[in-house]
Amino acid sequence: MNNPIFYMPTKIIAQKNAIKNHGIAFSQLGEIALIVTGRNSSKINGSLTDLVETLQNLNISYYIYDDVEENPSLETILKISTFGKENNVEFLIGLGGGSPIDAAKAAGVLINNTDSTIDDLFISPMLKALPLVAIPTTAGTGTETTPYAIVTDHRAETKRGIVQRVFPVIAFLDANYLMKTSKDVTINTGVDALSHLIEGYLSSNANIFSDGLAENGLKLFGKCLKEINNYKIDFKTRENLMIASCIAGIVIAQAGTSLPHGMGYPLTYYKGVPHGKANGVLLKSYMNFCSDKEKVKNILNFLEFDNLDQLGDFLISVLGKPVELSDEELYKYASAMASNTAKLKNHPSEVTCDDILDIYRSSLKRF
Ligand code: NAP
Ligand code: FE
Predict the structure, then answer these.
(1) Ligand 1 binding residues, C-beta < 6 A
(2) With contact defined as beta carbons under 8 Å apart, do 68 and 96 qualify?
(3) 159 and 293 share a domain?
(4) Which pLDDT band, with edges at 50, 70 and 90, does 83 fall under?
(5) Which residue among 45, 168, 310, 321 is least crowded, i.e. fewest CB within 10 A of its CB?
(6) Are residues 67 and 28 in the same domain?
(7) In this structure, are 111 and 238 located in the same domain?
């Protein structure tokens, strides 16, 4: 075995009314907070009200930036950082799905380093971010326990990770906020968490610590499959998905994601396929391509599938039809992936452009 390293410094508080019960933790982070959230959902699911009331009770001043779009752009991150600097904020609270939390991570780097520019997000790894609290309201990205922030760079026509490592200080997990989530968001984000567990487990960086967590996360996810398929999702299932997603975050914080995520980015950027679905449609073919058949078998066992076809059928049934790609698009996306060294290094063996084309073709032809 290689020499395993495990690091995950985020304090996780997972319970009903987590913010109200443990909000005192905000007082240690500063006196002026910037809440970064999406346009609507946090106002509807009760999370923004709980957060604001808690900060008011603690006499912490707060500003709200509530205009983060899905797959947040660098333009949005610049706006948040300008707003944060103007108001001298001392810490950030990312509230919502992965998009606002990632936007808060990236903006926290720029606010804390007043002379930095958006280019520094990709070239200055040593910059430190302001303290960040994450309150996820989707069960999918696991960003509450990863150091990553994924942003949309329109100049490069893709999504990419910032180079700084920004682990949230605290993650509040309350499945109550997920009860009104739409079917599409529930399924797409849930499949994102599943992709993290699978890609992290099969990664070249997987180790005994991350594998133990991935195995537990896969078992927990397996318990939710029937409910997802029939779309009968009660509080307990939401909570299980939220914990599975958080565990998946810890796994990819160690092991990273690989081909399905890298190959999914162009499907999102050019075709508007939601992030989780973009990875999910590629999973079956990716697993078929992986040479560690023992681990692939373990994944199917933990999820309680008899074979890879059953996993593929489940994904087709819940995700539905993805977009079709022309040959020109296939080659463009495959060659972008073939030069994505950050993702390729997380796959345990050599990958050629033809291998990537095969995974795209066999994934998309089934639909
Ligand atoms: P999202 O883009 O944050 O949100 C998707 C949609 O869900 C939005 O319309 C949002 O509405 C809505 N929504 C959020 N919470 C809701 C709730 N409780 N009830 C109803 N609707 C809700 O989705 P996401 O899948 O969580 O995040 C995707 C982003 O995370 C991508 O950019 C992806 O690349 C990134 N990601 C990051 C990591 C990481 O480690 N950092 C890992 C994987 C993925 P509002 O806009 O109104 O809030
Ligand atoms: Fe993801």
Answers:
(1) 38-42, 45, 70-71, 96-99, 102, 137-138, 140-143, 146, 148-150, 159, 177-178, 180-182, 185, 189, 192, 275-276
(2) yes
(3) no
(4) very high
(5) 321
(6) yes
(7) no
Domain that holds residue 118: 11-177
What is the domain-level CATH number for residue 25? 3.40.50.1970
Provide the token pair at 291: 């040479």
Same domain as 284, residue 214 = yes
Average pLDDT over the chain reads 96
Query: pLDDT digits over 170-187, tens only?
Result: 999 999 999 999 999 999
Number of domains in the chain: 2
DSSP code for 63: E
- What's the count of helices (H) and strands (E) in the chain, helices before strands? 16, 8
Q: Is residue 88 part of a domain?
A: yes
Q: Is the pTM of this model over 0.90?
A: yes
Please state, in angstroms and rounded to a whole number, the distance separating the CA atoms of residues 54 and 20. Answer: 6
Cα dist. 143→23, 101, 148, 170, 177 in Å? 20, 7, 7, 12, 17
